[in-house]
Design brief:
alpha/beta; 22% strand; globular
């Protein structure tokens, strides 16, 4: 039992009809459910922002959604308001087998900093606690699926590889936003970090 499945941000706001919808984001749910059924350890991540989060365009007067700004920790995309704590959009996709999860990691709850990765906030320093959980369970290999390939999956996979985990990303069970070539760039970054793209 050295392998864990990490299911990233399969939430209503990232699926068609949601505030930050990823095209075909809902189509990966049946395949993820099937994979969860055969995985010894399952971890779900959940984007979990307070209202007025600093990564929302609405908190920056005059800023366009999907424009870039500079934060103390580096460049930041300004997103539409999404995955607000307790909101319907923050809930997992209704067809996702949530009860199969051993652990749910909530991220992005610090109002001053965004958190794409399942392992670190966007300062690349502040941990979420996931690494310690996996190490304490003796897990060394990770399979990652979910949304979106070029943001939260990418950051999670690269961080996990840097931490020394063997990481496989199932591209068939991910979907990307692909903003200005971000999907191709993410796949290059993952490959360069040693992530297996399956």
């Amino acid at each position: 039992m050295t392998e864990a499945l990490i299911v990233i941000d399969v939430q209503k706001d990232f699926c068609p009809g949601g505030a930050l919808a990823v095209a075909e984001g809902d189509q990966i749910v049946p395949g993820i459910n099937a994979l969860m059924a055969e995985s010894p350890v399952v971890v779900l991540t959940q984007d979990w922002h307070p209202a007025g989060h600093s990564s929302f365009a609405s908190t920056h007067p005059g800023a366009e959604v999907m424009s870039m700004t500079e934060m103390p920790y580096g460049p930041q995309v300004l997103w539409p308001d999404h995955c607000i704590q307790g909101s319907d959009g923050a809930k997992f996709h209704p067809d996702l087998t949530v009860d199969r999860a051993d652990l749910i990691i909530r991220k992005g709850f610090n109002p001053a900093i965004d958190s794409y990765s399942a392992f670190f906030e966007n300062d690349h320093v502040t941990p979420t606690g996931l690494e310690g959980y996996l190490r304490s369970r003796g897990i060394s290999e990770l399979v990652m699926v979910g949304l979106a390939t070029d943001f939260c999956v990418n950051y999670s996979a690269v961080d996990a590889a840097k931490l020394g985990f063997k990481v496989t990303v199932r591209r068939d069970l991910c979907r990307g936003i692909d903003m200005d070539g971000s999907l191709a760039a993410a796949e290059i970054a993952m490959a360069e970090a040693g992530v297996i793209l399956a």
